[in-house]
Write a structure and sequence with these properties.
The chain is mainly alpha-helical. It is about 70% helix and about 0% strand. The protein has 22 helices and no strands. It is globular, with a radius of gyration of 22 Å. The chain starts with a helix and ends in a 7-residue tail after the last helix.
């Protein structure tokens, strides 16, 4: 059973449908062998050892000494190239995809600050915040749909459609002057395109690597953080020199160039494997307590996690930071998140993913309540942006890993998509609620910061409960 748990924290999000099928018969025969020894029965997601069995201090290892049966052709690790020109070209293209999609979403705080003081200054912070909220919502909500389309048709059509919508949405945003126009262009069209780019890039990369998959995903994921560093600074500088319309066009032209390269290089190693659509495959996982607890915890945590990304610039300016220096807070946050998305993942593979997730989530909560809330100067805000970038980056990489750990390996893609679809609703609600709290405080950010900390703290506690549902209170690797 150890074979099922050898899923790295960066590898856990996406498996192609073809890979899942080839593991099916081996999984069933191995599960029956465990069942005869009193181990777990064959279910949709029960791949952890029975908690009542004597542990060997590591819940991700099994005591069985039975040799595994030979892997089938699509699952055999030797069938993965794990390198070569074509494989690394796919990684480079996926790097560009994440730069353009998740990297753009990471700089939403720049636009909240700009719109609130320029084109949409006559609207409340809560109303303006619907633009970044919709951006995050559409980025994640499409996960189950685009994942299924990828399995059925491959990445080509998805990438082409996403590239057009993302660039077209930003070009149209450069012409906007009314609130509804910004909603349609930047809050709906552009993020739907970004979502269409993000998921196929992640899925395609996984088909080329097995032993070196964590390295490949790490390189690819660095694109999102690098985009979150470069794009906010670029937009801010061009706005100051040439105005907002050309800032949006300049960003759109940059993304267009990168996406042309991505469309030429990103491809799946495996052919599409069409299957009929079924809504129940996304609903059935919620019948299992550990999965439901993980999703609920992620929902609560996500409800507060993006508030600093959106409002840290405005709150810093409110507390006396200059507009020029405040513009660098989001790039600082995203730069440090590069380490937050890689180092905790490596530690989690050694000490347990649930254990690491709980620690980093509580750390994020403490940073919000003990550093952001009382911050009244430049240094506290810069320190908060750096430390929060690290701790929140850990959540992004570890959340899919938790789903993979408690799921049948054939259903990781479906279950991860279901989780992101649920948490996207939290992201949709979080910013408008925070903006309403700012308005109720006459421009103060105390209520927003407390709400952010409480939501993240509640999510951290539910993660503790989800760990308890798997292993009780014993100090073991979970």
């Amino acid at each position: 059973m150890a074979e099922f748990m050898a899923v790295s924290s960066l590898d856990s999000t996406f498996f192609s449908d073809h890979e899942k099928q080839t593991r099916q018969s081996w999984r069933r025969s191995h599960s029956l062998s465990l069942s005869s020894k009193g181990g777990p029965q064959e279910t949709d997601a029960n791949i952890l050892p029975d908690i009542s069995d004597p542990p060997d201090s590591d819940l991700e290892k099994a005591n069985s000494t039975e040799d595994p049966k030979p892997a089938f052709a699509g699952f055999d690790p030797s069938s993965f190239p794990d390198g070569g020109l074509q494989a690394w070209l796919v990684v480079s293209g996926a790097f560009c995809c994440l730069f353009c999609s998740f990297g753009w979403v990471n700089c939403i705080g720049v636009f909240q600050a700009y719109y609130q003081t320029h084109q949409l200054s006559n609207y409340s912070p809560s109303t303006v915040s619907w633009i970044p909220s919709l951006t995050v919502f559409f980025m994640f909500a499409g996960g189950p749909i685009w994942g299924k389309c990828y399995d059925n048709y491959g990445p080509r059509q998805l990438l082409l459609a996403g590239s057009f919508l993302h660039v077209f949405g930003l070009m149209m945003a450069s012409l906007c002057s009314e609130y509804y126009q910004f909603i349609l262009a930047q809050g709906v069209c552009s993020p739907i395109g970004a979502s269409l780019i993000f998921y196929p890039a992640m899925s395609s990369t996984g088909t080329w690597f097995f032993k070196r998959r964590a390295l490949a995903f790490g390189i690819m994921a660095a694109g999102s953080s690098l985009g979150g560093v470069i794009l906010p600074i670029m937009v801010d500088r061009i706005i100051a020199r040439a105005g907002f319309p050309w800032a949006m066009r300049g960003a759109a032209f940059l993304l267009l160039a990168l996406l042309i390269y991505a469309n030429l290089t990103v491809r799946s190693r495996l052919p599409p494997s069409p299957k009929p659509w079924s809504l129940m495959e996304f609903v059935l996982p919620f019948r299992e307590l550990p999965f439901s607890l993980v999703v609920f915890a992620s929902f609560l945590f996500f409800g507060g996690m993006f508030l600093p990304f959106t409002f840290v610039i405005l709150s810093a300016q409110h507390d006396g930071m200059s507009e020029r220096l405040a513009a660098y807070l989001v790039p600082i946050l995203n730069a440090v998140s590069i380490f937050g998305r890689t180092i905790p993942g490596y530690i989690a593979d050694k000490t347990g993913r649930f254990n690491t997730m709980i620690i980093t989530c509580f750390l994020s909560t403490l940073l919000v309540l003990c550093l952001w809330l009382p911050a009244r100067g430049n240094i506290p805000y810069i320190l908060f942006a750096a430390f929060y970038g690290f701790s929140s980056g850990a959540f992004v990489s570890l959340a899919p890993a938790l789903v993979a750990q408690i799921s049948d390996i054939r259903q990781i893609g479906v279950r991860t998509g279901s989780m992101f679809a649920v948490v996207s609703v939290a992201a949709l609600m979080g910013n408008p609620i925070g903006g309403a709290l700012v308005s109720s405080e006459d421009g103060g950010y105390w209520g927003l910061q407390v709400f952010c900390g409480v939501m993240m703290g509640a999510g951290s506690l539910v993660f503790v409960v989800s760990r308890w549902s798997l292993a009780g209170w014993r100090y073991v690797k979970v």
